[in-house]
Specification:
The protein is of the alpha+beta class and 603 residues long. Helix 11 packs antiparallel against helix 12, helix 14 runs antiparallel to helix 15 and helix 15 packs across helix 19. The longest helix has 43 residues. 43% of the residues are buried. The model has no long low-confidence stretch (mean pLDDT 78).
Length: 603
């Protein structure tokens, strides 16, 4: 069985390469989705170790516009400070006062969180300097590293905070706060004296925080679980988080990217099932005589199916290995290009058994779903029937052809309608793949229109920096959507070509008969194209509303409602069938140029 499977693969390298390519696209996309989210973990942990980061972070927040009474606030802060003496805590820093105000940084006016710190280094979570020096107790501020790089501000420059012009002493990074601009508002550190001055001129207190270091970092989750339900009254919001939770939440943009890649990978896997099913059905049709010979010498349908499964499972194993390797190779580069929340150069996370099993499981599931049913169906034909025919002829009558004939449609169109749905399984598989591509086209067009409307509504006084931040986020989103659409459309086009090639082979004898009774090659091409357009029309009918539905569900309140003009829907409904007709016309033209005599020869 193994030798037969290997022989079949070697004799059909084109089909094997096509299926392998489709599987590799799906597994690589899924592997990248699973790996990319962890690409920033090593960089985060390097900064966490360098700053002696907290195992548990705790804070209480309140409304700066309606702060609680001083006595109530003092009690709440005392309860927060009491965490420092809890069992298992070996080091603390804080509590730190946090203020909110407005400031001008790099020529851009925006909301600023002012983090009040002492000049001496903290025992836990001391920010790591990347430029300049730390606070010295006098005038000056230290900017968060992402803020400084985005606003192009360096030590020695001047910023304005709550009306006070202050020199920039340094630039630092800390895992206790997210990186700007992914996490806003802008954050700066100031000394206690500067904090008092800006508070006197309008900065408002809104939170206090404390950072805890435990004897064993593995106890962080239990520590939070035991104290996370504490209530300090309706005026406060209390939060406790472990270092692992803060690490996982430190790059939400990568989480969103991973979800998008995972969605694209699942769609690619679904389209690959359709492609593989068509390939397997075509294989069984072309090898029906070989199947009959095997059955004549005692091979069971299960063994025939096992041979086909062995062929495609081997391809699935190769695709899984390629996908895992692609995830390791591509995830750092993609993370670096798409993320603005990383604390350093991204690195691929180690391959885990869970990730490897997920990628391999997808590849195997695609093969099983696409292979078992058509293989068993072909193998269960009687031995006599398998030995006396080269392929199962279409048997379904066409009411469409009867309707077309009564309507007086041209003969090539009637002939095309006659065979349009004679292979319903193949037509549905083709339509399913095309509908996903059409849906992604609609999502891309809707996104592009929404972005244009959003940019048109931006306030004219929006700063250049804010526009640059928005433009980069938009470019990344558009790139991701169109890359996914391109992959789906390319695979759908390949699927369409495969379906057209097999359909051309199935209809070769019928077209030869038509040519012997006077039909021109052009008429046979038209009949073939009309027969194949049914799946495309079904794809447009399903794909256009599917794209609108997916855009509405995924966008939610974050994106503007879809607002495409009617001409766009009409253009998609016209252009897609025309493009599809051009694709499937290629094998039809090649078929029309073949001599009639060999096609009519009795085998």
């Amino acid at each position: 069985m193994t030798r037969l499977a290997w022989r079949n693969l070697r004799h059909r390298p084109g089909q094997a390469a096509l299926l392998l390519l489709a599987l590799c696209l799906a597994t690589s996309t899924l592997s990248v989705a699973l790996a990319v989210r962890g690409a920033g973990d090593n960089a985060w942990e390097r900064v966490w170790h360098a700053t002696n980061g907290a195992h548990v972070s705790a804070f209480l927040a309140y409304d700066p516009d309606d702060p609680p009474a001083e006595a109530e606030l003092a009690r709440a802060r005392a309860d927060l400070v009491a965490l420092a003496t809890a069992p298992g805590v070996v080091a603390t820093s804080g509590p730190w006062t946090e203020l909110v105000t407005t400031g001008e940084i790099g020529g851009d006016t925006r909301e600023v969180e002012v983090l009040v710190r002492r000049s001496e280094p903290a025992a836990v979570g001391q920010p790591l300097l990347t430029a300049g020096q730390w606070l010295d107790g006098g005038d000056g501020v230290v900017l968060e590293d992402g803020l400084a790089s985005t606003m192009k501000v360096r030590p020695g420059d001047t910023v304005t905070i709550a009306g006070h012009r202050l020199p920039v002493r340094g630039v630092a990074t800390s895992v206790a706060i997210g990186r700007f601009p992914m996490y806003q508002p802008a954050r700066i550190w100031v000394s206690e004296s500067v904090g008092g001055r800006v508070q006197a001129t309008g900065a408002r207190s809104f939170a206090s925080s404390i950072e805890l270091r435990l004897a064993h970092q593995g106890d962080a989750a239990a520590f939070v679980a035991a104290r996370g339900g504490a209530e300090l009254g309706p005026s406060f919001y209390v939060g406790l988080s472990t270092w692992e939770q803060r690490r996982d939440a430190s790059h939400d943009d990568m989480t969103a990217f991973a979800v998008a890649m995972l969605s694209i990978g699942i769609l690619l896997a679904g389209l690959t099932i359709a492609t593989a099913a068509v390939l397997v059905a075509g294989r069984m049709a072309s090898q029906i005589r070989q199947v009959g010979t095997l059955k004549a010498v005692g091979v069971t349908p299960g063994q025939v199916t096992a041979v086909l499964l062995a062929e495609y499972l081997a391809l699935a194993g190769i695709a899984a290995a390629v996908g895992i390797a692609a995830g390791q190779a591509l995830s750092p580069a993609l993370a670096g290009d798409f993320s603005r929340s990383l604390y350093g150069a991204p690195q691929a996370p180690p391959v885990t058994w869970t990730r490897a099993a997920a990628v391999a499981g997808i590849a195997i599931a695609v093969v099983l779903l696409a292979t078992v049913r058509p293989a068993l169906r072909g193998a269960r034909h009687s031995t006599l029937r398998s030995l006396t025919t080269t392929a199962r002829p279409p048997r379904r009558a066409s009411r469409l052809a009867q309707w077309g004939s009564r309507a007086g449609l041209p003969l090539p169109v009637v002939l095309g309608l006659r065979s349009a749905l004679r292979r319903p399984g193949r037509a549905v598989a083709n339509a399913a793949g095309l509908s996903l591509g059409v849906a992604m086209v609609m999502i891309g067009l809707a996104l592009d229109k929404g972005i244009q409307d959003f940019l048109a509504e931006q306030a004219p006084d929006t700063s250049a920096v804010s526009r640059e931040i928005t433009a980069r986020a938009i470019d990344q989103l558009v790139t991701l959507v169109y890359a996914g659409a391109g992959l789906l459309i390319a695979l759908a086009a390949v699927n369409a070509v495969v379906v057209a090639v097999f359909a051309a082979r199935d209809s070769a004898r019928n077209h030869a008969i038509l040519r012997t009774v006077g039909a021109t090659p052009r008429q046979t091409v038209v009949a073939f194209v009309v027969a194949q357009l049914g799946g495309c029309l079904l794809a447009c009918a399903a794909g256009i509303p599917l794209g609108v539905l997916l855009f509405t569900l995924v966008g939610g309140e974050d994106l503007t409602p879809i607002n495409l003009p009617a001409t766009t829907y009409a253009a998609v409904a016209v252009v897609v069938p025309l493009a599809y007709a051009a694709i499937v016309a290629v094998p039809a033209r090649l078929l029309s140029r073949r001599p009639v005599t060999p096609l009519l020869a009795y085998e």
